[in-house]
Design a protein that fits this description.
Two copies of one chain form a homodimer.
Chain A lengths: L8 E12 L2 E9 L8 E2 L2 E3 L6 H13 L5 E8 L10 E9 L15 E8 L10 H18 L13 H12 L5 H11 L2 E7 L9 E5 L3 E2 L6 E2 L1
Parallel strand pairs in A: 1-6
Antiparallel strand pairs in A: 1-2, 1-4, 2-3, 2-7, 5-6, 8-9, 10-11
Chain A binds a DNA duplex (30 and 30 nucleotides) through helix 4.
Chain lengths: 226, 226
DNA sequence: AATATACTTGTAAAAAATACACTATTTAAT
DNA sequence: ATTAAATAGTGTATTTTTTACAAGTATATT
């Protein structure tokens, strides 16, 4: 199919999750050019020759969201020769979790992209390349991580209620959890700091606010220790 | 450090584990050329332009061990620009578990390699590139897998005793396990088939032989279901 | 004051993990 | 034939973890 002399191109694609409007969403960009012109895709780009892969993924993330210092983990490297219709492109995929609040989506005008937007992960448009598979696999990985490591806090604001925390778990795992058991388990982990504040009662009974203690995330297959 | 026009090279390296002489070992090759001439390294090679990454890893594995149909899982992609002293080489690392018995190590004469040998994983020689890190990370991953998935059977012969199975766990986890609890847990999993045979008493009391029921391994982050 | 809504809390049962010591079968030596 | 040495095999009690499950509390609205 390809001449053996042709070289590989190496990219990184970043699946960026957030919670917004009570839904779990991923960031997608609309492609300006062929292949897959007009189709939605995960943000990505070429890895520069003197840049680590992590740095490339961070750069992509920052270009689109202007966010730094977030949880970013290498997911898997996808390299089927047929994944790109006209070239051999190996992509090292990452996933990230961010709070969507204080984020302004952006893209350079002269770019490969005509739009940037959050899409509900359980209701995605048709995607370019193998990006559907990459997102599904990301979701699987995030769920695995959640079992061992409270990475969901990356999706929450600094101060949050236990109900919000539980909701983020439910969105990711896509199932209901028992409220009392959830709270019991989390409080036992002693990674939560109970604050002296409550929600300013948007309505109804105010809820206690919590924040996370500093925890150490090891981003290369992040397990955590408090 | 590199001109941005220079292209990446993409390789795959495979950490191959086995149990031999009562020790957990990895397969290393001695490099014939610079860089790291004469140093031991994990077997690896370039990914061909129309080959999947999995296929490339299998090819490397087969070249050195002539083994096929074994557990092979993508580990991580290492891409520090400084990991190779003179080029930008991104490597997609895999690990594999094989039985060393019926294996004849081999390498082509006109090759990059002057020797192929098993080395105890807890007593490694100095290694080329970042291969020490890659092996350490493999070991971490194998241990993680072992918690959920009895991949250790890949290291055992067709028929084995429970003591041999336990020993393989102890070698990988590098700690002693309780004999009764180990047996209880494994028998409860009902993935073992008790055979009507016993060891032909090399000495002492003969031990019951078992084999594994067919289990499905999902090699892309293999979990298993019996 | 009554009502609606979301917040908070505890206990009992089941399941899983752990700790722990003796008997059984064989070979080799006397 | 008896004994010693080596490895195989087995069960129970305790602790820990997970699960299931329902009623009272604080605030805002009417």
């Amino acid at each position: 199919m390809f001449k053996e002399t042709k070289t590989h191109e190496v990219t990184t694609d970043v699946v960026i999750f957030t919670i917004k409007d009570g839904k779990l969403k991923v960031l997608l960009v609309k492609r300006a050019h062929e292949p897959f012109k007009g189709k939605w895709a995960i943000p990505g780009g070429f890895i520069r020759i003197s840049e680590t892969i992590d740095a490339a993924a961070l750069r992509i993330l920052k270009e689109k969201t202007n966010v730094q210092n977030i949880y970013l983990e290498q997911l898997y490297t996808f390299g089927d020769p047929l994944r790109h219709p006209t070239a051999r492109v190996i992509t090292c995929a990452y996933f990230a979790l961010i709070r969507s609040d204080d984020i302004v989506l952006s893209f350079e005008d002269n770019s490969e992209i005509t739009e940037v937007q959050w899409h509900p992960v359980y209701d995605l448009p048709p995607l370019a390349f193998d990006h559907k598979e990459i997102i599904e696999y990301s979701l699987k990985r995030v769920r695995e991580r959640l079992e061992f490591c409270p990475i969901a806090f990356q999706l929450l604001p600094e101060k949050f209620t236990l109900t919000e925390l539980q909701k983020s778990y439910e969105l990711i795992l896509d199932k209901k959890l028992d409220k009392r058991n959830f709270r019991k388990k989390f409080l036992a982990l002693s990674i939560l700091k109970e604050l002296d504040e409550c929600t300013k009662s948007g309505s109804k009974r105010p809820a206690r606010l919590y924040s996370f203690n500093e925890i150490t995330l090891n981003s290369k297959r992040g397990h955590f220790f408090s």
